[in-house]
Predict the 3D structure of the following.
Amino acid sequence: MNRLAIAATALALAAGGAARADSVLVLNSEDASYSILSRSGRIELVRMPIGREPHHLVVTPDGKDLLLASTTTNELLVLDAKTGEKRRVQRDIIDPYQVGFSPDGKWFVTAAYRLDHVDIYHADGFKLAGRIFIDGLPSHMTFDADSKTVFVTLQQTGRVVAFDLATQAIKWNVEVGKAPAGALMLPDNKRLLVALTGEDGLVVVEPKDGSVVGRLQTGKGAHNFWPKGDGRHWFLSNRVEGTVSLLDTQDMKVTASIKVPGGPDCMDITPDGKELWVTQRFLRRIAVVDLEQMRMVASVPVGKSPHGVFMLRSAAPGPGTGPVRAASTSDEQK
Amino acid sequence: MRDLIDIWVGAQNWLFETLVSPLLFRFGLMEWFEPAFNAVEIVMLGIVQILVIALGMRFFEKRWPLEKTGNDDLVAVDRIYTVLNKLGIIPLAVFMMSYPITNEIDYLVRSWGFAPPRLEQLVPWLHDSALGSFLVYFALYDFAAYWLHRAQHKFSWWWALHSLHHSQRQVTVWSDDRNHIVDDLLMTLALVVFAQFVGVQPDDYILILMIGRLIESWSHANVDMSFGRLGERLIVGPRFHRLHHALAGPDERHIHDHNFAPVFPIWDMLFGTAIYDGKHRPTGVDNPLMDADNGRGWVAQQVTVFGRFVRALAPRFSRGPIQPGLRPPAE
C-alpha cells in the first residue's frame, strides 16, 4: 500500500470513526488512546482517544461488541467488534484492569489491579453481584468450562484465588510462585496453567484445590497466554526474556521460541491463522510474527506502552476463536 | 520524528534490560517492572537536562553575565543538588517516601467510585489537540505550583525549609534544584495528588516536569537577557525570577514575596504579586543564620536546615527563643 493510499484510508477512518474488517486495534495504555492499524499494510491508520490508562479488552458473548476497559476513569468504551465504530460508554465499572466473560456468557468479571478487588457482575446489564477485596494486585483471570469458577492471579503475593461465581465466595487461595500473571484453563478443564512473571516459566495447578502439580520452563518473565487455534498449542509471552514460546499443552513442552524484543505482552492471531501480533510494551510498537517462518517479520509503531490487542473481524470467525475473546485470558478454546 | 522516538526508546529499553530488569527479576520486584521502565526514562531526561544546562545555558551565563561571579565554591554545592535531582537520586528517595501516601489517597478516593475528571469532557476539542491538552494541563499544574510556592513563603515552618533555596548569594542556572529533601517531599506530595485529581496523564506529567524544570533552571540564570516586554509576561525569565531571589532590605522587606510563578507569570499578574521594575538587586537572605547556609556542603545544609525546620515547627525544641528572621515578615 503506498503512502497516499494509507493517508487516504486514515483520513476516511478518522472522519468516520470506524475501522474496516482488515484492522487491528491496540490499546496504548500510557497515551490514553487506542490505535487502529491496517493488518495488510502494517501501519497505524488512526489513533483515537479513550479515558485513562486502557489496558485490556474483551468481546461480548454475542460477538457484537468490543469492550475497552479504561481503568482510571472507571468505564468501558463499547465499540462494534467488526468495524471498531463507537457505540456507547458503560460507566461505573470500578478500576477495570482485566476483564472477562464466563464461557456461558452469564458472568462478567473485572480485576481491579490498583484497588485490590475482584468484581463479579451479572453480564446482562452489568449489575454487580459481588465485590471481593483481596490484597496482592489481582491481575489476570480464566474460567472453568462449566462457568462455575473464575481463577484470578495475584501478582504481588504470588497467589492464585478461585472464586465461586454464583456465591462470590473464595474456594481456595494458594501460593504458586513469584508474580503469577497469565492464567489458562485448558480445554480438558483439569489443568490450570499459570505463568510466573517473577520466574522463568509456568506452573500446572490442580483446579480443585490449587495445588501445584507440574512446572515448565519457558523463559524469564513468563506472562501471558494466547491460543494458536488447534486446541493443543498456546503461545506464551516471556517479558524479561523477550521471547514468545509455543507450548504443546498435550505433551507439556516448548516446541518453539520466537524472539520478540521490548517486553512482549498481549497477543492476538490473524483470522487466517498466519500471523501472531504481539504488543512490545517498551518499544511503543507491535510485532508481527509469521507463524510459518516462526519469526518476527515486522514491527509497527503505535502509542506508548501498547498493551491489549484485538483483530477486528469480518463475519466469519477465524480458526480457534470462539464467541468470547479476552485479551489476556484463554478460556475461549472450547 | 518516529526515528527519534525509536532511538530514544531503544536506548531506554537497552538500559532497562541491561541494568534494571535483571535486578528486579533477581530480587523478586517484578510488580515494579513497568514503573521502573518509566524511571529509566526520567533518568535519561535528567541527563539531557544536565547537558542543556551545562552546555547551553552556561554559555549564555559566561557570555552575558548579570553579576560577576566571585566565589565558585558557593555555586559548587548547587551543582551537587542539580546532579542528584536530575539523575533521579533525590526523586527516587522522595518517591519512596511519598508513594505510600499518594497511593493510599488514590486508593481511598477511587474506592469511593470517584473517577478523576477529564477536561476533554468539558472541552471536547482537547481530545483532538495533543498540544492544546498538554498546555491546559501544564497551566493547571503551574497554577497549583504558584500557590504552593506562596505557602512556602507564608508558613514559618515551611519557610524554614524553603529559605535554603533563597539563601544562595550567587544565583545561577544550577540553583533551581537547591532544596531541602523534606521541602521536595512536601511539594511532590501536593503536586502528585493535584495531578491525580485533575487527571494529568503520566506521560504529560513527565513532559511537564521536564519542560517546566528546564524553564525554571533558565529563570535562575545569571544573565543579562530578557524575553522582551511581551515575552517576560508570557514565560518566567531570569529578570522576573531574580527579583524573587532579591535580598530584602529596610525599604523592601517583602521584595522576595513577589514573582512566585514557576513558569507562567500570569498568576502573579492576576493575584497582584508581579513586579516588573527592571531594577538590579543583590540576591540572598537577610537573616545571618540562613545566610550561613552558603558556607556549608550538601550534608551540612540538609542537617542544619532540618534543625531549623523542627524548631520552627515546634518552638519548644528550640534552645532559646526563635531566632529572628525564622518567620517570614508579615505581609
User: Anything to note?
Assistant: DSSP finds one helix and 28 strands in chain A. Residues 3-16 of chain A form the longest helix (14 residues). Chain A has one domain: 3-312. The interface with chain B takes residues 30-32, 49, 51-53, 72-75, 92, 94-95, 114-116, 137, 155-156, 178-179, 197-198, 220-221, 239-240, 242, 261-263, 281-284, 301, 304-305 of chain A (CB under 8 Å).
